[in-house]
TrEMBL record:
This is Beta-barrel assembly-enhancing protease. Binds 1 zinc ion per subunit. InterPro entries: Mito/Outer_Membr_Metalloprot, Peptidase_M48. PANTHER family: METALLOENDOPEPTIDASE OMA1, METALLOENDOPEPTIDASE OMA1, MITOCHONDRIAL. It comes from Microcoleus asticus IPMA8. Its cofactor is Zn(2+). Keywords: Hydrolase, Metal-binding, Metalloprotease, Protease, Signal, Zinc. One of its GO terms (biological process) is proteolysis.
Length: 281
């Protein structure tokens, strides 16, 4: 067998075993109940998110300098997670407010790292809206969207090996370090698809309402972003979070379905609380 045929045979074998690995890694999500093809374990997702956290933050100017506003974002995020089914996923969520005042964006890394920019925060005007943003991003984590995308890209085999080494010991040297760096770059640049965004809308709605927040906050967030879109440059949130024309309508229908007699008065909007904690920061 010549070298070309030998290499082709090896390539076919690798493709075959890669496909077998992908299609046989079928697990059930404990929160959504969905069957998913992922190759990372939850622990490996956590490690990968921590590896990428600083790089993601540095893209947006680092952490916001006000500790009091960061603590407020923490409190709202923790209420959303600890008061809802998101807690069942077992991820150690961390919420980060980033310094960038111009970029209007929020995003999540696998394993529980959630970010919101100052540029987006300053457009909000209620705690329910903040809870909606953090709940939506937590939905990406709980939905394991990044892990699904990495598996689909057939990047998972080397990624799992590299992250597995990182979670167990320090062996593996430069090759594993290079693979980790490649994995970090993959997740930092990841863009979710429309189905992921719609699922995160539903999960964000679920998490924020289970935590006691007024679900109209998530509709208001989409309306705020839609209005911002009419400016000179659309918010980055809308480029990295595909926005179907009927997205607001879907959320309004979800509210009507869950609250046919109207939204209960005891669900928190938190406009005064938000103003007290964020204004002047």
């Amino acid at each position: 067998m010549n070298k070309f045929l030998f290499r082709a045979a090896i390539g076919l074998l690798m493709a075959f075993f890669g496909a077998i690995t992908y299609f046989t890694n079928d697990v059930q999500n404990p929160v959504t109940g969905e069957r998913q093809r992922v190759q990372l374990s939850p622990r490996q997702e956590i490690v990968l998110g921590l590896q990428a956290r600083d790089q993601m933050g540095s893209k947006y100017g680092g952490l916001y300098p006000s500790q009091s506003i960061q603590q407020y974002v923490d409190r709202v995020g923790e209420r959303v997670v600890n008061g809802s089914a998101a807690k069942q996923a077992g991820y150690p969520f961390e919420f980060h407010l980033l310094r960038d005042p111009e970029t209007v964006n929020a995003f999540a890394l696998p394993g529980g790292q959630v970010f919101i920019t100052a540029g987006l925060l300053r457009r909000l005007n209620s705690e329910a809206q903040l809870a909606a943003v953090l709940g939506h991003e937590s939905g990406h984590v709980v939905g394991r969207h990044a892990a699904e995308h990495l598996a689909k890209q057939q990047f998972g085999r080397s990624l799992v090996t590299a992250v597995g080494v990182a979670t167990s010991d320090d062996r593996g040297g430069g090759q594993q370090a290079a693979l980790i760096a490649q994995a970090v770059n993959q997740v930092v640049g990841l863009r979710y698809g429309r189905s992921d965004e719609l699922e995160s809308d539903r999960l964000g709605f679920r998490f924020m309402t289970e935590a006691g927040y007024d679900p109209r906050g998530i509709v208001e967030v989409m309306q705020i972003l839609g209005a911002a879109r009419k400016g000179e440059a659309p918010p980055e949130f809308l480029s990295s979070h595909p926005n179907p024309e009927n997205r607001v309508q879907k959320l309004q229908a979800l509210i009507a379905q869950n609250y046919p007699n109207g939204v209960p008065a005891n669900l928190v909007s938190g406009r005064d609380e938000f103003a007290k904690n964020v204004s002047g920061g």
